[in-house]
Design a protein that fits this description.
The chain has about 425 residues and is α/β, with parallel strands linked by helices. Helices cover about 45% and strands about 15% of the residues. The chain has helices spanning about 10-20, 35-40, 50-60, 70-75, 95-110, 125-135, 155-160, 175-185, 195-225, 230-240, 260-270, 280-290, 295-300, 330-340, 350-355, 370, 385-390, 390-400, 415; strands at about 1-5, 25-30, 65, 80, 115-120, 140-145, 165-170, 190-195, 310-315, 340-345, 360-365, 375-380, 405, 420-425. The protein binds uridine-5'-diphosphate-glucuronic acid (UGA). Uridine-5'-diphosphate-glucuronic acid binds near residues 149, 151, 153, 206 and 249. Its EC number is 1.1.1.22.
Length: about 425
């Protein structure tokens, strides 16, 4: 099939590349010519394991092109995917201006029947708006559909090529047939819904996963008080098929470009319909507070943090990505600086994206050891493999005071055996 994907962010780029890997002819379009130039040289503007190799392979085999020419791409395609950003407005609402702009340009570029598919996360009713905008700019026939994306950063290629399910929201037969044919090589589990339900499935899924995380984080906080171990509790709970084991890792709260934005947007969507989504508001509040769990521990150990050297391991919102959007590290480091601490930070790949936020105030180190060297405490904020592979006894030898606060529960009692670390984690009894 001949496809255009508009937007070369995480969703657009990964989807476009994976569709070409399936044998389709794909043109990826972006307004930012620097990004297109880079992609045309076979390099990718984001860090995503396995993606660069797939870009090079499919480009070389002639199935994948990158361009700034939206009109030319639309002319040559049957299906057009909109995968542009929908950042949050100050109110929490999704900003749809990039979507509206893309719809207008598609409308102006139409030269025959096309199916226009939204992959971006958009409020319920947006696909109808897109239909109206396109209609205002063309006399050609077309159909719209919503096919929300469920990929995770860091495992985006795997998630796209082996999805749990594909949701196709459309009420049109041609769109359903074309989109089913396109996605059939990926999974048997294709669920066709009306457009509004498809739009809602995306928000509801992310809100539910965020709820699971805030739930287990509150259980962790209670475990700390009653002397239980949240990892054992989560394992026991997750073994019930109705609950499931995923997204029950307690920690310092969720971050990233999706959960914080989508939970706020769903609260707004509900609010606009006069519905007070109390549960989701609490999920957001619990998440905000969970960031400070580790600071409370730090103060309990060190007292006043003024002039204390605190090492931070991990700035990305999760491992295997250089994305720092809404990373817990921002709030934790800001609070440490407010309290007068000296902060030294290290991340294997995300530091460059973080640096301009605390210019001069934070020392960014080139290695985990440099950050931890003679510090009064080390805080682990991201569960990078490099940290999991570093033995606690080595960490102890680097620190001035043996205080380790593990915000991601990466070490076991066995790992700590023989050390004299004051080890604090999330929702687990003191192990040392
Ligand atoms: C999330 C969803 O998982 C994807 O299905 C969705 O497509 C994507 O948002 C999106 O809407 O585009 P992502 O933000 O890449 O994907 O990352 P996740 O792996 O879901 O992690 C999100 C945050 O939750 C991270 O900060 C992670 O550390 C945290 N988390 C996750 C926990 O604290 N505990 C867990 O058990 C799981």
């Amino acid at each position: 099939m001949r496809l255009t994907v508009i937007g070369t962010g995480y969703v657009g780029l990964v989807s476009g590349v994976c569709f070409s890997e399936l044998g389709n002819d794909v043109v990826c379009v972006d307004k930012v010519s620097a990004k297109i130039d880079m992609l045309n040289k076979g390099r990718i503007p984001i860090f995503e394991p396995g993606l660069e190799e797939l870009v090079q392979k499919n480009k070389n085999e002639g199935r994948l092109r990158f361009t700034t020419d939206l009109t030319g791409a639309v002319h040559d395609s049957d299906i057009i995917f909109i995968a542009v950003g929908t950042p949050s407005l100050p109110s929490g609402e999704a900003n749809l201006s990039f979507i509206e702009q893309a719809a207008e340009e598609i409308g102006r570029s139409m030269n025959g029947f096309k199916v226009v598919v939204t992959k971006s996360t958009v409020p319920v009713g947006t696909n109808e708006k897109i239909r109206n905008i396109i209609q205002q700019h063309t006399t050609c026939l077309f159909e719209v559909a919503s096919v929300p994306e469920f990929l995770r950063e860091g495992t985006a290629v795997q998630d796209t090529l082996y999805p749990d399910r594909i949701i196709i929201g459309t009420s049109n037969d041609t769109a359903r047939k074309w989109l089913t044919k396109l996605h059939t090589p990926l999974t048997d589990n294709i669920i066709v819904t009306d457009i509004r339900s498809a739009e809602m499935i995306k928000y509801a899924s992310n809100a539910f996963l965020a709820t699971k995380i805030s739930f287990i984080n509150e259980i962790a906080n209670i475990c700390e008080k009653v002397g239980a171990d949240v990892t054992q509790v989560a394992f026991g709970m997750g073994s019930d098929k109705r609950i499931g084991p995923s997204f029950l890792n307690a920690g310092i709260g969720y971050g990233g470009s999706c959960f914080p934005k989508d939970t706020q947007a769903l609260i707004q969507i509900a609010g606009q319909m006069d519905y007070d989504f109390k549960l989701l508001k609490s999920v957001v509040e619990v998440n905000r507070d969970q960031r400070f769990n580790m600071l409370r521990k730090l103060e309990a150990i060190l007292g006043d943090l003024r002039s204390k050297t605190i090492a931070i391991w991990g700035l990305a919102f999760k491992p295997e990505t250089d994305d720092v959007r809404d990373a817990p590290a921002f709030e934790i480091i800001s609070a440490l600086l407010r309290k007068g601490a000296v902060v030294r930070a290290y991340d294997p790949i995300a530091a460059d994206n973080f640096k301009n936020h605390f210019q001069g105030a934070v020392e960014y180190c080139v290695s985990a050891q440099k950050a931890a060297w003679h510090a009064d405490a080390l805080c682990i904020l991201t569960e990078w493999k490099e940290f999991c592979d570093t033995s606690p006894s080595v960490i102890q030898s680097w620190l001035k005071q043996p205080n380790l606060i593990d915000g991601r529960n990466i070490y076991s009692e066995e790992d700590l055996a023989g050390t004299e670390l004051n080890y604090y984690s999330i929702g687990r009894p003191n192990m040392n």
